[in-house]
Amino acid sequence: MFHLTHYNIMENKYTRLKWLALIIIAGFFFFLAQAAFAGNKSLLITSLPQQQITGKVTDKDGIPLIGVTVMVKGSNTGTITNLEGIYNLPVAEKSTLVFSYIGYKTLEVPFNGDMEIDVQLEENITSLGEVEINAGYYTTTERESTGNISRVTAEEIELQPVISPLQALQGRMAGVEIVPGGNQPGMAPTIRIRGRNSLREDGNFPLYIINGVPINSTPIESNSLLGNTGIDPLNTLNLSNIESIEVLKDADATAIYGSRGANGVVLITTKKGENQKTGLEARVYTGVATVPNRLELLNTEQYLQLRKQAFINDGVEPDQYNAYDLVLWDQNKYTDWQDFFFGGTSSITDVNLTTTQGDENTSYRLSGSYHKQGSVFPGDFNYQKATASISINHTSKDKKWNLNFSTNYGVDISNIVGNVDLTFSALRLPPNAPSIFNEDGSLNWTDWSEAGLDNPLQGFFNTSKTQANNLISSLGVSYEILPGLDFKTNLGYTYFNSEELVKRPKRSYNPAISESINHGSSHLDIDRSSWILEPQLNYSGSFGKAEVNTLVGGTIQESKYSQLGLQGQGYVSETLIGNLSAAESILNASHQNTEYRYAAIFARLGFNWDKKYFLNLTVRRDGSSRFGPGKQFANFGAIGAAWIFTEETFLKKENSFLSFGKLRGSYGTTGNDQIGDYGFLDAYEATPGPGGLYPTQLANANYSWEVNKKLEAGIDLSFLKDRIDLGASWYLNRSSNQLVGFVLPSITGFTTIQANLPATVENTGLELELSTVNIRSKNINWQTFLNITIPKNKLVSYPGIEQSSYANIYKVGQPLNISLLYQYEGIDPETGYYSVADINEDERFDFEDRVVIQDLGRDFYGGITNNISYKNFSLQFLFDFVKQEGTFALFNAGDLSNQRAETFQALDNNSRFQQISASSEAFNAYSRVLTSTFPVVDASFLRLRTLSLAYSLPSKVLGRLPFNNGKIFLNGQNLYTLTKYKGLDPEIPFDGTSFAGLRTITAGLEIQF
Predict the structure, then answer these.
(1) Euclidean distance between CA atoms 791 and 788, whole angstroms
(2) How many of the other CB atoms lie within 10 Å of CB of 585?
């Protein structure tokens, strides 16, 4: 669409980097060849006579250790211990067994002919609490981290029957708020890390990084029902292939990503092949999902009684035009429309297969999966996903060269309800309404047309098919130049393609008007691709009590986006719908291409003294093609510090009640360039037909980077030898120089122009995290994890807001997510209808009268997880909770639509509901009161989000089976919700007529060979 000539200076750099990329890829194949020779040394060992041995691995207290890797040294033969700590392994004479486990010292035991070898592993004191945490460009530990990083592991997410990995994070992280996008599989959830920073919705997406490669986090556009929230770009990932998910929150953690880290960073690391481990793992589960809740609505008798009373009160005679439900429709018919529209059962099937192999130099992991999920709505709709991934890791014999290569490829196909909102009809249709379908399965038009209505499922035979293909690949090569000095290069490539076809056959619509309707189709093709190259130089060294870790690197990234949309009309037959060559005409064709270029240099200095005092400095200079000349570059940085005060002599006691204590803090700036491309240029598009252009955008080359300043203070404590861990974090983030489309008068011919608005948004909050080891014994282990977040969001300042177009959307001193409401005044004694306050007494009701501000955000939220194991059994369950307000509609007694059952109380003159009426005056009063304080209710909830029960097959059973380890499991999702909210789903508490999470129960089997 445009050529950015002011970026031509970067072209030569891109050319050189592409040659460098080719050299790196060539090196990759060289290492593969080297790896082929590395595995030959195991042939001699495996050819010797072997004996099957067994044993048990425990810690110093005799507690079984689960998942300990047991290998025959120098070979590919190995296994892991089960839930009893038992292993079984074929071993040749004169072999050596190697036992390794995170947090414990590796142990080598020579095989002396004993058929049973029990071992006790010793804790590695230096590794306690030292599980590596991915901080993006480097790794750290929970003990030494100066930033705020939350982490969940594979065990917490891999068995959850959800589509997107974001859904698996609900309730598990402080400061991370996730709200489902809707009730259709594949709809993008909304994720907010420490609140909303930007006035524009598309400026609040976090940065997604998968194996070091950034991907576009903006949901994919759709013309189907998925278009309500868009399609989640993470849908095509296999949850079983994820090793961990880290979320970076504060400035210290995110500043190294510069402008891309303003809204937080989500780091997803996939599983890799493990050294000295060979195996095959299969996992399958199946189950069902249903809508967990129903509204209490009027039955036929109650509904008709209210309707008849409405006409009596209005003094109007019912007839076939104003009361077809009383005159034309069966007075004894009752249909539970909720059961009809979303009372079905959705089946779920998931199959996952993984193989790993490796030795001390080379390892690989190959996995594939298939997931299928049905629909609770009537019709044959489903969602399918297939994924494949490979990970290869190689280290040269001299340990100087390291190579990591991974590719994740996923395809998902969504066949959902074709542009028909079934939930709306289910809750509003009168209970005595006619049947939807005829006996032959066609739509019933006769009974509905008699009342002058369209069938509520008009469009039911429309179909939509959205197929997405997603490739994410990364290659990392490092070389140790000198001891402590490494050169590393990361290269990544991503490609996403989405093809959507919506078919609209004539039989979906009223045959009485079929002559004016043609078979039609909508087409939407989207391509996203990007490549990134990041060379880095790392140095680590010790100087007495001082340790230094430095990092210097650069980033060059190029992203391309293409969208093609059009409609086909006039197909001769239904079978040809979608074949554009058979369409009589093509309408509304649009095509756009954009290109985004990004470049940066960054550096980090990590310093600690005596493992007590830690300092972390990060700086980054970013350049973005989304800004005009002279505005493309900006500087960002942060400082983080920590003090482990329990290492001080006066607190360092062997049996101290306080076993660990750390104070930390950080301050820094990040930016934001999440705006459209080319906003600083005049834009034109071609007119249909020969020669012509028309303007579509006004130029403004003066806007610049949005700036986000972050401040944090925190404390981490451990008590009773790490049996109780407590963490508290306070944060204050301010985002200014807001990048928003400034609204223009219609006389200009344009709706907006890109600009910086003088607004400042503030997010503050308190995050608390608590973990406890309640029981730790030989047979029973019980751990509890609690997190709670108390967020506050407000618009700190916006000079001139009252004269801007945002005066009725935002208020200074209030959160961004607000609703302006009328003040409810009760029932008007003269009319008997709902009344709201006319603040300015001008006898009109408009925004000047909507003076009550309702905060639509959450007062606090969090989750509590319990992990319990008893011998071969393990139980995990998660409750998440939210304190919030919502609204609940459907209380217009007498209206020609079904209502909440409690509106039957309107027959009582002392009812809180207005007089029963079908008049336009009553409807207008109801419409106003919907945006008043009247329908506001408590929508807080406590939900049993996840429950997993597993049983590991005992060794005596495994001895008779052809595999080494086996586990059967049962999983439940959204099983129970405790709430006062009477709507369908308190997680989407707006009018009470929507739902998101289904109640899901699955059972499965996992085996390892």
Answers:
(1) 10
(2) 10
Cα 896 versus chain centre, distance = 39
Average pLDDT over residues 841-864: 94
User: Average pLDDT, whole number, for the chain?
Assistant: 88
At 26, phi and psi to the nearest 5?
Answer: -60, -40
Measured distance CA(99)–CA(935) in Å, rounded: 63
**What string of H, E and C letters represents the secondary structure of 426-482?**
HHHCCCCCCCCECCCCCECCHHHHHCCCCCCCCCCCCEEEEEEEEEEEEEEEEEEEE
pLDDT of residue 710: 96
* Residues 6+ positions from 954 with CB-CB distance below 8 Å: 82, 84, 86, 872
- State residue 34's pLDDT score: 42
Angle at 152 between CA 147 and CA 158, to 5 degrees: 160
**Angstrom distance (rounded) from CA 758 to CA 215:** 30
Question: Pairing relation of β-strands 265-270 and 207-210?
Answer: parallel
Distance between CA atoms of residues 164 and 229, nearest Å = 14
Token reading at 241: 């292939």
- CA gap 918, 315 in Å, rounded: 10
Report the distance separating Cα 524 and Cα 265, nearest Å: 30
The Cα 74–Cα 498 span in angstroms is 47
SS3 per residue for 876-918 = EEEEEEEEEEEECCCCCCCCCCCCEHHHHHHHCCCCCCCCCCC
Rg for the chain (alpha carbons), in Å? 31
Nearest in space to 637 (alpha carbons), one of 590, 602, 681, 588: 602
205 Cβ partners below 8 Å, 6+ apart?
A: 191, 217, 218, 263, 674
Lookup: tokens for 434: 């006619």
Four-residue CA torsion sign, 160, 165, 171, 174 = positive
Q: Which secondary-structure segment (H or E) carries 306?
A: helix 300-314
Q: What's the mean pLDDT in 45-70?
A: 77
742: part of which helix (H) or strand (E)? strand 738-743
pLDDT at position 130 is 60
pLDDT at position 421 is 66
Report pTM: 0.87
* Residue 305 DSSP one-character state: H
Please check the confidence at residue 125 and state whether its pLDDT lies above 70. Answer: no
Tell me the residue length of the chain: 1009
Give the pLDDT confidence score for residue 970 in this predicted structure. 95
- Cβ pair 175, 193 in contact under 8 A: yes
Closest CA to 460 of 407, 430, 417, 495: 417
Helix (H), strand (E) at residue 42: helix 42-47
Domains within the chain, CATH numbers bracketed = 48-127 (2.60.40.1120), 129-270 (2.170.130.10)
696's enclosing H/E stretch is strand 693-697
Report how far apart, in Å, the C-alpha atoms of 245 and of each of 128, 135, 178, 233, 974 are: 21, 11, 14, 16, 22
Which residue do the tokens 């994890």 mark? 785
At 15 the three-state DSSP class reads helix
CA distance 744 to 327: 52
Tokens encoding 677: 């491309």
Q: What is the pLDDT of residues 421-474, one digit of tens each?
A: 677 778 999 999 999 999 999 999 999 999 888 899 888 898 889 999 999 999
What Å distances lie between residue 845 and 709, 823, 919, 921, CA to CA? 40, 11, 19, 14
Q: Would you put residue 186 in left (φ > 0), alpha (ψ -120 to 50) or beta?
A: left
Instruction: Give the pair of three-digit tokens for residue 476.
Output: 């990392």
Give the distance between the most distant pair of CA atoms in the chain. Answer: 101
| C-alpha 998 chain-centroid distance | 17
CB 969 within 8 A of CB 866: no
Classified as helix, coil or strand, 673 is: coil
Question: In whole angstroms, what separates CA 615 from the centre of its chain?
Answer: 32
* Strand order across the beta sheet in which 78-80 lies: 78-80, 69-72, 96-101, 104-110
Q: Are 74 and 45 in contact (CB under 8 A)?
A: yes
